[in-house]
Design a protein that fits this description.
It is a single chain. The protein has about 280 residues and is α+β, with helices and mostly antiparallel strands. The chain has 2 domains: about 230 residues, Hsp33 domain, CATH 3.55.30.10; about 45 residues, Alpha-Beta Complex (CBS domain Like). Helix content is about 35%, strand content about 35%. It has 10 helices and 12 strands. The strands form 2 sheets. A 10-stranded mixed β-sheet has the order 7-6-3-4-5-10-1-2-9-8, sandwiched between helices. β6 and β7 form a beta hairpin. The N and C termini lie far apart (about 45 Å). About 40% of the residues are buried. The structure holds zinc ion.
Length: about 280
Amino acid sequence: MDLLLKGMAKEEPLLVVAVVDTETVEKARAFHDTYPTASAAFGRVITGAILIASTLKEGQRVMVQVMGDGPIGEIVAEADWLCRVRGYIKRPHIHLELEDGKLDVGRAIGKGILNVIKDLGLRESYHGSVPLQTGEIGDDLAYYFFVSEQTPAAVSVGVYVDIDNSVKASGGFMIHALPGVKDETIKYIEERLKSIRPVTSMILEGLGPKEIMEEAIGLPVEILEKKDVYYYCPCNKERVLDAIAALGEREIRDLASKGEKIDVQCWFCNRKYLVSKRELLSLL
Ligand SMILES: [Zn+2]
């Protein structure tokens, strides 16, 4: 089972969260049949959504949407306060490499925007939106935290795709500087992160979230919270009908004209729902 840990540095006001979500991202890859560069981009967005979800309160949800002008088009990941996550990628069959064989996530995503929408419960929601900085996701999320949540943060997310195209390592960490942090501590963390190895090599070596946190900040961490992370889609027939109802009358009549029954597939988990003409027309 994948695991997320949240903790505080023992002697500094630094919040640290780390997650190893290899199984979850591999499941997302299999559901959506992503090619390696798309798998890396998708996995980083999924990990980002999980990291943000770790800051939510009971009952809340977050959706991270990356819309770029690169060939992938759009990636969405939704996670709830329990760090259960699901995702959607518009064009999964994208594979772009750099000259050194590295996966070119930045080019696959391109220029565009990062949206973060939080469902805070009681019909309250929060929407933050920032232009993509590099399309590499980690930097983009750090920029989002700084601009939209006024929280200086460092975010690192990574996915390692195996030779057989499966996801062999995925995970990430984030560090939030809380009020009262000394300038020299921020400088120390910034310097440290410049020379740190990629989070995927820590995971490939077998490090868990606690060791990743401590390697990231170079300080002992006290663990405050622990969450099991997994791919979870809460779709059901009722929600599918709600989604169709939102399409509007013309679309619904159009669908109803296609036969006595139509197959509707969930975008997030590929589960199929059979919707009858009668059910469609009852939405009008
Ligand atoms: Zn579903």
